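Researcher: Next entry in the queue.
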Amino acid sequence: MVAHPTRDRRAERREATRAEILDAAWELARIHGLAGISLREVARRIGIQPPTLYWYFDSKNAIYDAMFAEANRQLLQLIAEQEWPTEPREMLRMAARVWVAFSTEDVARYQLMFQRSIPDFEPSPEAYAVALEILQTMRVDFAAAGISDPAHLDLWTAVVAGLAAQQTSNQPGGDRWLRLTDEAADMFADHVLGTTTQESQR
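Model: Structure for this entry, 202 residues:
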């Protein structure tokens, strides 16, 4: 007889409720902004009493922390799902497209991940570890493309973050700055990698 592991149904229900709470918090953030999340309204949306929320999250910042970790896991998964080109310039173009598109498709998520929108919120070490994993993945991929100088990586993050900030601030839902990702990636490549042989022969 094959022994089947015993399911912890209470833990499963708790995780399911935590996921509902986070979904409700994201919905409110997209309507009212991150600072507009109300624990009372989160509780109302999922049909529980406000004090019950504290059994799942001990504070509003704990909800922000879980949201921060969830958002970074989404980006990490997106990066892992890509078929990354081996040619450095094509890799940079694709990296710019992926990063800027992810940042601009959900303004609330972008603000929580990349801006200090909540003055008294600081991610926990556990949540921030996911963000550090993304940075380490980027360092490894860029090193394989011949880009390992920390200053070049800082410049890269400034370029793509600038495009995302312009798009979310000035034309949310549009593509004015999204359309510039390839050009920005090529400018960066020209500066860091130099022009290719083919381009120098033009």
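Model: The chain has two domains: 8-58, 61-200.
Researcher: Noted, moving on.
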